[in-house]
Amino acid sequence: MAQAVQDQESRTLSEGEGRQANKPGRGPIDWLGGWRTCLVGCTTFILLAIAIRIFQQFTAWTDGIDASSEGFAQTYRALYYAEVLAATIGTLVWWGYLVRKGRQLVNREVSHDEEVRRIAVFWGLVGTTSVILYIMASFWPNQDGAWHQTAVRDTALTPSHIPMFYLFFPLGITITVGTYLYGRYWLPKVYGAEKGFPWSFLFLIAASVTEMAQVAMNEWGHSLWITEEIFAVPFHWPFVWYGWLASGIFALWAETAIRLFGIEKEVEDAAENPAEVGTFGARREEHEAIEAIAS
Amino acid sequence: MAVDAKTLELRELVLKKYRYIDRKWDLVFWVTAAFVVGAAADITKQLFAGDWDFWTDWKDRQWWPIITPFAIIIIGSALQYIQWLAWRFPTGMTYTAVAFWFCTLVGRWLQWGAFVYYPMNFVWPATMVAAAIFADWVLLKTRGSFILTSIIGSALFTIAWWISNYIPLAGLLQPAVWMDRVVTLADVQGIEYVRSQTPEYLRIIEHGSLRTFLGETQYVAFAFGTTITVVGYWVGQAIARGLAIWPIGRFLKKW
């Protein structure tokens, strides 16, 4: 009996629950449990931006003014190549993992604990998206205005453009698409493929993709028209319009919150009707009761 | 005092204990959302009205009060709609203003100050916190009427914004004599702190032949600024309704 119960559990556990369920403080809604992704993700990208900013403080005025200089090649051009390479490889590895792993577990039934943990991880990814959008749309653009209205326009590769346009703008695409893949495979009841493509993600991913496209238009515009810059020139406005599409992020919070309340309802219903067939929560309580008797 | 059934039902709902839902969900939402809200407000302001906000000598009476309130009310209006719809909170504009203030202050201090060495008394950002509180107050008092808030709230917003930013600006409008001309301290800052890529002829402030306009330029600017801000308010409403709320639970079947 105990073995049968254990077999049933192993078919329905996913890695999160099996690994973490017994550790204190690693539950689905604990800071080092389900919320760890939020803490790690947000902190990582804030620290990355700070690290690049510190690098710029020591090198921008000495090596960053002239894109044809040797100093520029050794600092900013090297940083550019490193960023593009790292972002490309990191993106492909992460998306590849999400698709491969996701296909294995998308059709497995999960417990309420595990589904709540996944929603917390999803909110962590959405929070990380929010932080990356801040770094993309506020942290670096402030610097871009400061640098290009004071130093020089120079080329498309400048100390302010390199971390902004060629690292964090692509990371915006990485994180939005990655968050979708996580939702699609890990939260099938909310974003399963059979429902279609979510409009919320369409807007959010479109925001990051069109922002990247706008980079090209922006640099072409600067090469074509006067390089003296007021920040509010009309060909900068599409950055704002595309950025408004990121409002779809609110729908992600709402859609998963709705599922969270749905899970709470299922837990309530299972508590009121423990013999109810078809509610996983109820079956789980039955299994726990059986296991307690068997042991 | 007798309590009706509906009140009891709502009270029970507020005090309900959940298995998985605790205050951490609220904390994570409000803190992480502040990043994207502040950033959206900052980029909208920077690319629609940035130049008038970056420099004290561009904070004039003619263009600054027109363009800036229009730019900054957009995201605030969007958050007003979202927070009122979701929770009946009259806090959307203020929440945006505070998040926006943090984002713009970090940017101004770290980039314009520490990176290119302009003093903060030259590149300080305008605040919208006081203006936002008034706009949220109007939403509360009109019991969630977005139409009334767009008109009355925008008017109060524009005027409160001007007053709350005129206070730090006033000291820099003191007259100074520079190269035998009477200018303001802000003008001297603009001349002395060189902006290589922003030539001196590119200065969209105080245009027009009737420059003095009997000293009434700013009142005319308030009036027009209010009407433009109403437009900005509805742009924000469209963003919230169309891009944030409409997609909830909607899927593209064929793509």
Explain how this protein is built.
The complex is a heterodimer of chains A (295) and B (255). The longest helix of chain A is centred in the middle third of the chain and has 37 residues, at 112-148. In chain A, helix 3 packs parallel to helix 5, helix 5 runs antiparallel to helix 10 and helix 8 packs antiparallel against helix 10. Chain A has a single domain, classed as Particulate methane monooxygenase subunit c2. Chain: C (Glutathione S-transferase Yfyf (Class Pi), Chain A, domain 2). Chain A has helices at 2-12, 15-20, 36-63, 70-105, 112-148, 161-186, 188-191, 199-224, 237-244, 248-272, 280-294, and one strand spanning 197-198. Chain A is mainly alpha-helical and 295 residues long. Chain B has 255 residues and is mainly alpha-helical. Chain B has one domain (54-242): Up-down Bundle (particulate methane monooxygenase, chain B). Chain B has a two-stranded antiparallel ribbon. In chain B, strand 1 (175-178) and strand 2 form a beta hairpin. The radius of gyration of chain B is 22 Å and the shape is elongated. The chains are: A mainly alpha (295), B mainly alpha (255). At the A-B interface, helix 3, helix 5, strand 1, helix 8 and helix 9 of A face helix 2, helix 3, helix 4, helix 9 and strand 3 of B. Strand 1 of chain A pairs antiparallel with strand 3 (251-252) of chain B, so a sheet runs across the interface.
List the helices and strands and how they pair.
The complex is a heterodimer of chains A (295) and B (255).
Chain A: H1 2-12, H2 15-20, H3 36-63, H4 70-105, H5 112-148, H6 161-186, H7 188-191, E1 197-198, H8 199-224, H9 237-244, H10 248-272, H11 280-294
Chain B: H1 5-14, H2 23-54, H3 64-87, H4 92-113, H5 120-123, H6 129-141, H7 146-170, E1 175-178, E2 181-184, H8 185-192, H9 217-245, E3 251-252
Antiparallel strand pairs in B: 1-2
Helix pairs in contact in B: 2-3, 2-4, 3-4, 3-7, 3-9, 4-6, 6-7, 7-9
